[in-house]
Amino acid sequence: MKIAVYPGSFDPVTYGHVDIVERAASIFGKVYVAVIKNPDKKENFDFKTRQKMIKGAVKYLKNVVVEIFDGLLVDYAKKKNASAIIRGLRAVSDFEYEFQMALTNRKMCPDIETIFFMTDYKYAYLSSSMVRQISKLGGSVSGMVPHNVEKELKGG
Ligand code: PNS
């Protein structure tokens, strides 16, 4: 069985992320969605809440497990026996950062391949930071995040 890890901050998870999880789950036997610390980002939701939100959003996908990990992504992927790291691409602007991250991870762990999935065009504009901003300023994020996340953004 081929195993993949889909890592990210997911702060919070959006429909764009869910779209990538669905694509990965249709190809791999098992997908671990890993909420991992991005040292360059300020955190909003705590790890447990982020995990809960993703779990609620993808509970219909039976081959998906949602976990929290604090450490190097390649260490987590090795622990899970994953052969691939999944990342989503929205636009060319994502490429440089993703390219650097993929090559760095390959340098540390040549056995694990990074695979990119193109997001659905419906979600190409979406980002967690936009969602947070809209929500904080009282706008509607309907259609951008799953219903359980919308509820959490409104205070649970
Ligand atoms: O959703 P994000 O914030 O773009 O995800 C980035 C993430 C969490 C995958 C990345 O920051 C990461 O892998 N963090 C763990 C630390 C690590 O392994 N760093 C080296 C990879 S370049």
List keywords for this structure.
156 residues; alpha/beta; Rossmann fold; five-stranded parallel beta sheet; 6 helices; 5 strands; 41% helix; globular; binds 4'-phosphopantetheine; EC 2.7.7.3; Cyt_trans-like; cytoplasm; coenzyme a biosynthesis; Rossmann-like_a/b/a_fold
Describe this structure in words.
This protein is an alpha/beta fold and 156 residues long. It has one domain (3-153): HUPs (Rossmann fold), CATH 3.40.50.620. It is 41% helix and 20% strand. The protein has six helices and five strands. It has helices at 15-27, 47-57, 73-79, 92-108, 128-136, 147-153; strands at 3-8, 30-36, 64-69, 84-89, 113-118. The protein has a five-stranded parallel sheet. The longest helix has 17 residues, at 92-108. The structure holds 4'-phosphopantetheine (PNS).
Layout of helices and strands:
Blueprint: E1 3-8, H1 15-27, E2 30-36, H2 47-57, E3 64-69, H3 73-79, E4 84-89, H4 92-108, E5 113-118, H5 128-136, H6 147-153
Parallel strand pairs: 1-2, 1-4, 2-3, 4-5
The structure holds 4'-phosphopantetheine.
Main location: cytoplasm
GO cellular component, one term: cytoplasm
Catalytic activity: (R)-4'-phosphopantetheine + ATP + H(+) = 3'-dephospho-CoA + diphosphate
